[in-house]
Write a structure and sequence with these properties.
Its EC number is 1.-.-.-. By secondary structure, this protein is of the alpha+beta class. It is built from 6 helices and 5 strands, in the order αβαβααβαβαβ. Strands 1, 2, 3, 4 and 5 form a 5-stranded antiparallel beta sheet that branches. Helix 2 (23-33) runs antiparallel to helix 5 and helix 3 (53-72) crosses helix 4. Bound molecules: flavin mononucleotide.
């Protein structure tokens, strides 16, 4: 696949199955992530690979965090069906990569630039997965921003979850890609006459 075809055809796949990228394929994905633009070479990211039983443990963490959030908000406790549904969420893919922005103090590089850089790294992972015939989808949701989840995953106070990348092989068909009109999103700019 040539580079432009790859860039034009990446498509999220919510339904994923085995095999997941592993070994050299996974290494190639991380090498692509490490090419993310990065102001001042801060390397403001790190990644947790979660597979096998780790996905069950992640599900339990999501349950604990959601129960606490609901309790704090005075909402009713989750039903057993809610709990089963949440436990099954991380099982939707054979591999999950948690992309973490590790924000460093820097006089010229604000936190937002570092989070963007980590987002570019996440995109690099997805593109390199696609280049090798694998598929994925970037997810967040309330649990990505939850202190209990962050703590359970070992995040430090200067870290944020940028996303959970669910990865594997596409199960079924890809959705059709929607064409966007270029001119809906770009304008030529010159300064208005004074
Ligand atoms: C930061 C971020 C968080 C996202 N979180 C979710 C999510 O929690 N659930 C979801 O269904 N899609 C989420 N998405 C959107 C999907 O990853 C995907 O972009 C969307 O389904 C459109 O598909 P496409 O990327 O193939 O066009 C998120 C995207 C981004 C960039």
């Amino acid at each position: 696949m040539d580079a432009l075809t790859l860039l034009h055809s990446r498509n999220s796949a919510p339904k994923l199955c085995e095999p997941a990228p592993e070994g050299e394929a996974l290494d190639a994905m991380f090498k692509a992530a490490f090419r993310a633009p990065d102001h001042a070479w801060l390397r403001p990211w790190r990644f947790l690979t979660i597979r096998g039983d780790g996905r069950h443990q992640l599900g339990q963490l999501f349950i604990k965090a959601t129960q606490q959030r609901r309790q704090q908000a005075g909402e009713p406790a989750m039903t057993p069906e809610d709990i089963d549904k949440l436990a099954a969420k991380p099982l939707r893919a054979p591999l999950i990569i948690t992309v973490i922005a590790t924000i460093k103090e820097h006089p010229k590089v604000p936190a937002v630039e570092q989070v963007i850089s980590a987002g570019c790294a996440a995109h690099g992972l997805l593109l390199a997965a696609h280049a090798q015939g694998f598929a994925g989808v970037w997810r967040t949701g309330s649990n990505a921003f939850d202190a209990t989840v962050m703590q359970g995953l070992g995040l430090q106070p200067n870290e944020e979850i940028v996303g959970f990348l669910y990865l594997g092989s596409v199960d079924g068909n890809y959705k059709p890609l929607r064409e966007l009109a270029l001119d809906d999103f770009r304008q030529d700019w010159t300064a208005p006459a004074q």
